[in-house]
Amino acid sequence: MSPELPKFEIKPLGEDCAIIDLGNEIDEAINDRAIAIAQAIEESPFEGFIECAPAYSSVAVYYDPCRLGGFGFSAVRSQIDIVVRSSSVFEPGEGRHHTIPVLFGNEHGPDLEEAAERNGLDTKEFIDTFVSTTYRVYILGFLPGFPYMGKVDDQIATPRRGNPRTRVAAGSVGIAGSQTGIYPFDSPGGWQIIGRTSYKVFDVSSKDPSRFKPGDTVRFSPDDLM
């Protein structure tokens, strides 16, 4: 007897996008499924397909409705349904691993001391806890190439700033709740900034500009000579 297919829903989002909704939680297994479905659609694209964007527990499928002979979303839904129901899409390709050097604290991480104090730790304990975890890239968003990663240890999970900054420097490493991320460009932002890296997150001159993809893993390493 084949295993029961996890629940999913395919919904329209405007005239040129379909959303595959796989649930409403941050879960590695659900995220794996979202990534695998996106990969399967990209490997065998339907007529009018443009691109897929996997998220925590969903996949956005963009298409050109002018190439669908007037059938639009109904045609896309049928094509997607076949892929989602295929048992072969539940294992995504293996992600890459990245080790990111970071300068913590001082002007590089102006929120480090406050975040540590908020969690009853000194800055060394906070940093040691942060770098001891291997983080998963769940989704890219907010800015091109911005990796939403998790899960931050509960001992150092820290809410967003009450007053966002008008400028956060490129390469800044931040925490927002149980997530961590790296700002690819100078940008406004409300995450707690604990350090900065010289690692280039997004390179517009590259054929594949984003250094990260959903499903990749990341470890951070203290670096005094970055």
What are the SSEs and their pairings?
Blueprint: E1 9-12, E2 17-21, H1 28-43, E3 49-54, E4 58-63, H2 72-84, E5 97-104, H3 112-118, H4 123-131, E6 135-140, E7 147-150, E8 165-168, E9 172-176, E10 179-182, E11 187-189, E12 192-196, E13 217-222
Parallel strand pairs: 5-13
Antiparallel strand pairs: 1-2, 2-4, 3-4, 5-12, 6-7, 6-13, 7-10, 8-11, 9-10, 9-12
Main features:
single chain; 226 residues; alpha+beta; Gyrase A, domain 2; Cyclophilin; 2 domains; seven-stranded mixed beta barrel; four-stranded antiparallel β-sheet; 4 helices
Low-pLDDT segments, ≥5 res: none
- What is Rg? 20 Å
Largest beta-sheet details? 7 strands, mixed, barrel
**CATH level-two architecture of the largest domain:** Beta Barrel
Report the oligomer.
single chain
* Order of secondary-structure elements: EEHEEHEHHEEEEEEEE
Say which CATH homologous superfamily of the largest domain is assigned: Cyclophilin-like
Helix percent reads: 10-25%
Tell me, rounded to a whole number, the average pLDDT. 90
Based on Cα principal axes, name the global outline: elongated
Strand content: 25-35%
Question: What is the class of the largest domain in the CATH system?
Answer: Mainly Beta
Stated plainly, the CATH topology of the largest domain is called: Cyclophilin
The number of distinct β-strands equals 13
- Major sheet: arrangement of strands: 5-12-9-10-7-6-13
- Give the tally of structural domains: 2
Distance N terminus to C terminus? 55 Å
Count every helix, treating DSSP H or I runs of 4 or more residues as helices. Answer: 4
Going by helix content, strand content and strand pairing, the class is: alpha+beta
